[in-house]
Write a structure and sequence with these properties.
The structure is a single chain. Helices cover 21% and strands 37% of the residues. It is α+β, with helices and mostly antiparallel strands. It has a 9-stranded mixed β-sheet with strand order 3-1-2-4-9-8-7-6-5, with no helix packed on it. A 5-stranded mixed β-barrel has the order 10-11-15-14-13. Strand 1 and strand 2 form a beta hairpin. It is globular.
Length: 290
């Protein structure tokens, strides 16, 4: 038996029809809608999920092959086969097939249902980045804090210390941590906002909160603390690689680049070379709030 739930992430509303034995990560509840709150003016996008050991195989060779994914592009629609990096099971764990512009069918190997408790695995079958870019929104790999009603984002490659610096601002400046790993960026009413996202990585910090975006801080580890504002060209080089992009989709890439450039025309970007100390907070504070 399938259970139907409704969600809104950013400005994208969808229904999810799932077998009741498939676990849903706790973070998804933060974005769940009561059925009565769903707009009757436009039907939400539909995902239908089935548990099956046999996946439909597209014709021909895939257009893109990665360690964790194969993608077929046919008549403007995608089919994705997904693998775990560690290849614990033979073959893919899921097939994600776009049926038309309003419906995606998802097929999941029943042997891996327990893995869907993890938000990264669960979100992988929804391919939400495609719908976010359609809503003029970007997903930035970043820790998101709110300080005096302003959103500040810390971005860097994994393992650099995003959550650590966010934690220092919480400890020494009373900032509120919204998400430790991902932030949705979207312009609403002429203002860029940081918005909640249901994936938070190992930080386990996840809230659904919209805040006016004040600045983005690119981090690097250093022996001393130094903070500077980046000029636009350098800022783009550092920010764009941290945005979720379907790099096999040219239209997606072009739109992501345009949105990133638009973001950087209005939102300042800073670079912070830092240690793990209150001095790092003080150093950045002087540049953020001169």
């Amino acid at each position: 038996m399938n259970i139907v739930r409704y969600y809104t992430i950013g400005t994208f509303t969808f229904s999810l029809s799932c077998p009741e034995e498939l676990p849903v990560p706790a973070n998804m509840a933060l974005f769940e809608l009561h059925e009565l709150a769903v707009s009757k003016e436009q039907e939400p996008y539909l995902y239908t999920v089935s548990l099956t050991k046999g996946f439909p195989l597209p014709s021909g060779s895939p257009d893109i092959i990665r360690e964790d994914m194969a993608v077929w592009l046919r008549n403007g629609l995608e089919t994705r086969y997904l693998w775990f990096h560690q290849h614990r099971h033979e073959g893919p764990y899921a097939c994600v097939r776009e049926e038309d512009s309003r419906h995606t069918a998802v097929f999941i190997d029943p042997r891996v249902t327990e893995d869907f408790l993890y938000d990264t695995v669960f979100l992988s079958v929804l391919a939400l980045e495609k719908h976010m870019i359609g809503c003029d929104a970007l997903i930035l790999h970043s820790a998101y804090i709110v300080h005096e009603n302003r959103a500040i984002l810390f971005t860097a490659p994994a393992g650099t210390g995003k959550s650590t610096q966010a934690g220092l601002w919480e400890k020494y400046r009373g900032a509120f941590q919204v998400n430790g790993d991902r932030t949705l960026l979207q312009k609403i009413g002429g203002c860029w906002y940081a918005r909640g996202w249901p994936v938070c990585g190992s930080s386990e910090i996840c809230h659904n909160l919209d805040t006016s975006l004040y600045g983005i801080v690119v981090l690097s580890q250093g022996e001393k603390n130094e903070a500077v504002r980046r000029e636009a060209g350098k800022a783009f080089q550092e920010i764009y690689p941290q945005i979720t992009v379907n790099r096999w989709n040219r239209d997606f890439q072009l739109k992501a680049m345009d949105l990133t450039e638009a973001l950087l025309r209005e939102i300042p970007v800073y670079h912070l070379s830092c240690t793990i100390s209150e001095e790092a907070v003080e150093c950045l504070e002087k540049v953020l709030f001169p």
